[in-house]
Amino acid sequence: MRLGKRQVWLQLLSLGISPVLAMTACSRQQQTGIDPQEVSAGEYAYEVHCAECHEQPHPDLLKQPPNLHGIFSRKTLPSGAPATDKQVRNTIIEGRGTMPAFDKRLSSEEVDELAQYLHTLK
Amino acid sequence: MKSGLSLALALILLLAALACSHRKTYPLQGEVRGKDLTTNEVTVNHDDIPGFMPAMTMPYKVKNTAMLQELQPGDKIAAEVVVSKDGNDCWLEDVRITDESGRGKVMAAERHMLMPGEKVPDVPLVNQDGQTIHLKDFSGKAVLVTFIYTRCPVPTFCPRLSSQFARIHNELKTTPDDYSKTQLLTISFDPKYDTPAVLRKYGLAYLEGDASGFSQWDFASTKEADMRRLAQAFSLDYQEQDNQISHTMNIALIAPDGTLVKSWSAEWTSDELLKALRQAAHRSAKG
Question: Which residues of A touch B (CB under 8 A)?
Answer without folding.
Answer: 1-3, 5, 8, 11-12, 14-25, 49, 52-53, 58, 60-63, 65, 95, 97-98, 100-105
